[in-house]
Structure formats: structure tokens, C-alpha cells
Amino acid sequence: MTSTSAGLIALPRRQTSAFRFTDRRKLFLLCLALPAVVYVVLVAVWPLAQGIWYSFFDYNLLRGGGRRTFAGFDNYVALWTDQTARRAVINTFIFTFAAVALEFLVGLGLALLLWRDGRFNRICLALLLIPVTITPIVVGLIFRALLAVDYGFLGYYLADWGISGPRGFLANTSTALPVIILIDVWEWTPLVALILLAGLKSLPTDILEAAAADGATAWQRFRMVVLPLLLPTVFLALVLRVMDAFRVFDIIFVTTGGGPADATTSLMLYGVKQGLEFFNIGFASAIGNLAILCIALMCAAFTLLIRRADVRANER
Q: In the predicted model, is pLDDT for residue 93 greater than 90?
């Protein structure tokens, strides 16, 4: 009787100690995650909240001693009434869709060519990744020097042969934006190819071999087997590049500065000019919020399209 009572008394003690260990473990994990949470709040959440708050004020550091007056949605309305802002939005969308489309098509072709595992393909892949290792500012400076009419290795001969005109491609309103798009394609296509190549390497070979044994052609295997299985990787590559391309700033800043005649002004470049050159904090905040909203909507659209394509592929 005494031993039974002792066992009944000892059981709750073991449960209590186990419960306390669970609490200590949760507290330990919370302490590990707390620095990262604080960093995200201070670096991302708080500046984003401040930008949203400032966008509803007429806040210019050069006017009225930096005083803020509530303006409501006037800064957002100005985005549609300001001709330069409208041009910046159009240029940004054109740049994003054109650059990402070319990078995806060329990157997919390069990934398919490098799919086979061989020494030559590994050497080509290593050389192909060189543009990705260069910062966008340096890339812009390199191509600005190459395309300069007076001393550029390419620009001098292109102007001399009458191909680019006397002022060069970057000084022409009709060719400046396409040239910047091609510069971005040159730099970031290897990254898209690397992501897609990683997805191709992870595909199950038995399905491809079974499709080949059933008599499927190379195009049929690509369209019905490879592409549906590659959709998650395609989604990753497109989302990463859309988010980065839509906030393009570096290449345009060092090559054309937004000119000529605002032909290459992007949304982020215009926002930086408004905030750091004219110190119009309220209007610059509205531009930044518009860019964030556009990126979120485009990523959501890509998510829906990829999910629908994935459902259709699984139904087959």
C-alpha cells in the first residue's frame, strides 16, 4: 500500500518536470529567434510603416523647416497627374516584362543545352556565371564605356558606320531603353539558367526514360513531362527576377541617369530623385509604396498562373 501511494505521488512530479522542460525549450527557441525578429522589424517593418505614414503627408525637408501637413491621397493622385511619374511607371513595366521574358527564354535554352553532365558543360557553366558576379553598377559603367561614341570600343565603330547615330544608342530616346534591357539580360540570364538547370537536374530520370521508351519525341517529352515538372522552378526564377527587375536603379543611374528626355526613367530612380535630390519625402514614399504594391500584385499573378498550370498538368 505504501509503495503504490509512493508511485502515484511520483507520477505527477515526472509530468511537472517534463512540462517545465517543454517550457524551457520554447523559451530557448524564442530567444534564438528574437534577434532575427527584432532585425526584421527594425530594418523592414518599421521603415515600411514609416513610408506608408509619410506618403499621406506633404513633407518636404526644404520647405517650411521640414514640417508635415496632412495631404491625404494627394501624393498618390500626383503619381497619375505627373507626366514624369506616368512615364516612369510605363518604362518600369516595359523593362520588367521585356527583360524577364528574354532572360527566361534564353536561360531555359542555356539550361537545356547544359543539362547533360560533362566536363565541357561544367566549364561553360563556370564561364557563364561570370556576369552574375559583377555588381550592376560596374556592369553599367562597363557598357557605358563600351558604347561611348568618342572612345568606346563598340560605340565608336557603331557611330562611324552609321548604325547607332552620331550620339550613340544610350543618347537616343528610341534605343536607350532597349539597350538597357539587353544589358540587364546579359547580366542576369546566367542566374535564370542556373536556377532552371538545378530544376532540370532534380527531375526523375525514370519518367523521362519511360516517355522515351513509349516513343515520345523530344518536343513531346519537353512539353508534357519536363515543363510541367519544372513549374515550381520556373515560378522561383520568374518571381526572383520580377522583384529585382521592377526595382531597377543601378544600371540606369550610371548609364543614362534616366535620360534622354525621361526615356529610361524607372520608378525607383524617380523615387530616389524625389527623396534624395528634391527632398520630397512624402511623394517619394508614395512612389516606393506603389512599387511595393506592383511587385506584390505581379507575384500574386505569377502564383495563380503557376498553380493553374500545375493543376492542369496533374489532371493529365
A: yes
